[in-house]
Amino acid sequence: MKKRMISLILVLALMTVVLPSGIYVGMEVFASTKKVTSISVKSKPTKLNYKLGGSLSTKGLKLTVKYSNKSKKTVSSGFTCSPTKLSKVGTQKITVKYKGKKTSFNVAVKNYVTSVRIKSKPTKLAYKVGEKLSPDGLKLTVTYASKSTKIISSGFTCTPSNFSKAGTQRVTVKYGGKSASFNVTVSNPAVQTTTAKTTTTTAKTTTATQPKKNNMQYIKSPDYKSKYYIVVYTGSQSAAVYGKDSTGGYSVLIKCFTVSTGKKGTSPTKTGMYKIKAKYRWRLLVGPCYGQYCSSIGNNYLFHSVPYDKQRADTLQDDEYDKLGRDASHGCIRMCVRDSKWIYDNCPIGTQVNVVTASGPAGAGVPKRNTDGEFRGWDPSDKWTSGNPYLIDLPTTSSAPSISLTTDAASTTSETSETSAIAATTTTSSTSATPSTSASPTSASSVASDNSATSPTAA
After folding, report:
1. I need a surface site. Which of 35, 124, 356, 415 has the fewest CB within 10 A?
2. Would the pLDDT of 357 be above 80?
3. In the predicted model, is pLDDT for residue 410 greater than 70?
4. What's the rounded mean pLDDT across residues 275-291?
């Protein structure tokens, strides 16, 4: 017993240490064995998308640390990440180290534009006031942060996109947050009176060569009181507006328009006596398509503009416009906007219309269409819709020589009543007011009740 006590005292002596302060502390008999066994990403950093060359941000990064004694904890510091400078475009792997263990997460690194310059200017550099910019031919050289370059011809924006004042104007091109510029020359449009005078001269020449006596054969109502009388000549694809002479007959040629009537063999415009019964600012037509400045004459026929794909003035069917002067419609009388609007504004409801197979005075011609991209979808004669790139009248097509009227036996066909589709939208007034010129192009919402018909009219 005494020996055991002595052994215990010796063990205790060996387990004590005298600290500098004179305090005796017992030593741990066994050292700790707790070690990190693995780490994993608990939450990724807040920022995961970078520009090329950017520095990594570890804000928001948290790790789950597991230990050998099965315990674990979350840490948000004390680790290292590499790389910290992001110098490779694409998905980049970030390695995280903590207490000798590793894990990782990915970030996205994007290239970006450092500069742009003009490689080639647009083909068109001279404009008239009011015209839209055409970027055709414009190419940019784009330089990126990676020092790579490429040439582009689309995807950029240009300011201004149309020109409201004359002089040299700078156009700014922007792409990827960078910009370059080039200059264009803008001039005032020419005076618009020349073409109008030419058209008037043609009309006077036609009047002088038109035999008056033959006009009377087409008058079917001796008590007719309207200001004008219209004859549609399918033989010459023209429509003549006559006024009264001193005897009360209609022999004074006021206007003569180039038209497209129904296509022969499939949908010819039926001859006979009609009269204007209703008017529509826009009208749904067969296709479906739409017409401007429509004047219904019965039998589902209308005087109307060349068809549009939508109820907008910039969706003209260009190929149909080019057919004016030839039979091409589904039965209606197509005209350019300038001419269909003249009838819409000046020929009131009740105006008599005679469709004949004879050839009459030649139409005055229509403005030629510009095939450049910015002019596509626009009627060159439409001067009432803002935004139309045609700001000046273009030279009219040459009129055919004047032709004397010939007898048309088929012209005695009786008037055909209008279909219910048109009757459903008939307006009761003469509808001579002109539409607003502020719309650009005219939208569906700007038309009151002109499209209330339940079925389309032949185009």
Report:
1. 35
2. yes
3. no
4. 93
Phi, psi of 302 (to 5 degrees): -140, 150
pLDDT tens digits, one per residue of 68-98: 998 999 999 999 999 999 998 999 999 999 9
CB-based contact 361:253 (threshold 8 Å): yes
**For residue 130, what pLDDT is reported?**
87
Please confirm whether the linkage preceding 122 is cis (ω < 30° from 0).
no
Listed in sequence order, the residues at least 6 apart from 203 whose beta carbon sits closer than 8 Å to its beta carbon are 253, 254, 255, 256, 364
Q: Which of 388, 284, 276, 260 is nearest to 335 (CA)?
A: 260
Average pLDDT over residues 368-397: 81
DSSP state of 402: P
Sequence letter at residue 215: N
- Give the H/E segment covering residue 312: none
Alpha helices (runs of H) in 157-211, residue ranges in sequence order: 193-209
Q: What is the pLDDT of residue 439?
A: 36
Long-range contacts of 179-184 (CB under 8 A, 24+ apart): 179/116, 180/116, 180/117, 180/118, 180/140, 181/118, 182/118, 182/121, 182/122, 182/125, 182/138, 183/125, 184/125, 184/126, 184/127, 184/133
Q: Which domains are delineated in the chain?
A: 36-110 (2.60.40.3630), 113-187 (2.60.40.3630), 193-446 (2.40.440.10)
What is the residue whose two structure tokens read 């038309």? 447
Spatial distance between the Cα atoms of 291 and 334, rounded to a whole number of angstroms: 9
CA distance 334 to 351: 18
> What is the spatial distance between Cα 324 and Cα 258, in angstroms, rounded to a whole number?
7
Alpha-carbon distance of 188 to 168, in angstroms, equals 12
Is a pLDDT exceeding 70 seen at residue 414? no
Distances (CA, A) of 204 to 39, 72, 242, 254, 402: 97, 103, 13, 9, 11
Scan for tokens 């005078």, then name that residue.
197
- Which tens digits make up the pLDDT trace of 383-407? 999 888 886 544 444 443 333 333 3
Cα 238 from chain centre: 34
8 A C-beta contact, residue 145 and residue 114: yes
Return the HEC string of 338-378.
HHHHHHHHHCCCCCEEEEECCCCCCCCCCECCCCCHHHCCC
Query: What element of type H or E holds 190?
Result: none
Overall residue count recorded for the chain in this entry: 459
pLDDT in tens, 117-164: 999 999 999 999 989 999 999 999 999 999 899 999 999 999 999 898
Which two structure tokens, joined as six digits, stand for 454? 């339940």
Half-sphere exposure of 400 (CA within 13 A, CB side): 18
241: nearest Cα among 353, 375, 407: 353
**How far is the first Cα of the chain from the last one, in angstroms, to the nearest whole number?**
128
Q: How far apart are CA 204 and CA 221, in angstroms?
A: 27
